[in-house]
Amino acid sequence: MSISPEKEHPEKAIGWAAWDASGLLSPFNFSRRATGKEDVTIKILYCGICHTDLHFARNEWGITIYPFVPG
């Protein structure tokens, strides 16, 4: 019996994602797994991206899977 996506990934999250090779970012709601007993929870206040993220967002290497959340 398989686990439903809602139970397997119950934590709601938001990020900024590129949806196509334009590289433009927009808000992206997604779910992630619950924090486990050996995980650490941190609050991220700021995030940076590197030039590699720009290559991926623009699919310049032809391997990007969208939506793509850089950083």
Automatic annotation (TrEMBL):
This is Alcohol dehydrogenase-like N-terminal domain-containing protein. It comes from Amborella trichopoda. InterPro entries: ADH-like_N, CAD-like, GroES-like_sf. Keywords: Metal-binding, Oxidoreductase, Zinc. Pfam families: ADH_N (PF08240). It comes from the Eukaryota. Residues 36-71 form the Alcohol dehydrogenase-like N-terminal domain. One of its GO terms (molecular function) is metal ion binding.
